[in-house]
Design a protein that fits this description.
about 290 residues; Rossmann fold; 8 helices; 7 strands
Length: about 290
């Protein structure tokens, strides 16, 4: 994507997304809950939004299972999150490549894949986890810039990365996309975000149909409210944070390490007979589809 009006830069809001896990007083729990069993031994994975939250939990769990990781992240300024995640991957005995940039730029998506191939020699798993959201109570409050930015980050990036990765994916490869419970039950103050998550689910099912005969599986995870930097750093109104996640049947938000195993299952051979499907770690919210 050229550096023209086609690209929508980050929305000028405070606090600025994506936020920093290291700045949170109540730190998310990313720690894997069990020993590795080699389910991704020798694999290479790209994890977007990989510096914190769900992305960090996925990256560390994948490393524990034997994968080398390319961590892709966006930050307006230097934060310790990415380097911390890189160190955690390396503590698991695997390699980590950190790439900072905006996946709404097609040229950066291509760079992510090319540098992954240059560093590790192959690509087996693509985890499209990066996303952003901007709460608005009224549809009239959603600006054109915000609408374009949300779609650019949440769904355009997935197209760009899948396009760039496709020549390197082969039989046995897997793509795992991050959709959301809001796609199924809606959200009165996340209209544009929820719309992108509907697009992601449709993209997942359609790309699965497109690639399944090549032996490449495409699935998705639809988390409920998960305790990550996204929400306290602008993804939810500050006044709503005290009750964040309490509306689920379990009465609490989930932790990143409660979501990461769903990504692992869909990335490894345990799910070899699944494609075009969505898993729902959402605190007990019953949804269809």
């Amino acid at each position: 994507m050229s550096e023209t009006a086609e690209f929508q830069p980050p929305i000028d809001e405070q606090p600025r997304m994506p936020g920093s896990e290291e700045q949170m007083a109540d730190k998310p729990d990313w720690t894997p809950r069990y020993r590795g069993s080699g389910r991704l031994e020798g694999k290479v994975a790209i994890v977007t939004g990989g510096d914190s939250g769900i992305g960090r939990a996925v990256a560390v769990l994948f490393a524990r299972e034997g994968a080398d990781i390319t961590l892709v992240y966006l930050a307006d300024e230097e934060t310790p999150d990415a380097e911390r995640t890189k160190a955690l991957v390396e503590q698991e005995g695997r390699q980590a490549l950190c790439l900072k940039g905006d996946l709404g730029r097609q040229d950066f998506a291509k760079e992510v894949v090319s540098k992954t191939i240059d560093t590790f020699g192959k690509l087996d798993i693509l985890v499209n986890n990066a996303g952003e959201q901007h709460p608005d109570d009224e549809i009239e409050d959603i600006t054109e810039q915000q609408l374009r930015r949300t779609f650019q980050t949440n769904i355009f990036s997935m197209f760009f990365l899948a396009q760039a990765a496709r020549p390197y994916l082969r039989r046995g490869s897997a793509i795992v996309n991050c959709t959301s419970v809001t796609m199924y039950k809606g959200s009165d103050n996340l209209l544009d975000y929820s719309a992108t998550k509907g697009a992601i689910t449709a993209f997942t099912r359609s790309l699965s149909e497109n690639l399944v005969k090549e032996g490449i599986r495409v699935n998705a995870v639809a988390p409920g409210p998960i305790w990550t930097p996204l929400n306290p750093f602008g993804g939810q109104p500050p006044e709503d944070m005290k009750d964040f996640g309490k509306g689920t049947p379990m009465g609490r938000p989930g932790q990143p390490n409660e979501v990461a195993p769903a990504f692992l299952f869909l990335a490894c051979e345990d799910s070899s007979y699944m494609s075009g499907q969505v898993l729902h770690p959402n605190g007990g919210i019953v949804v269809s589809g």
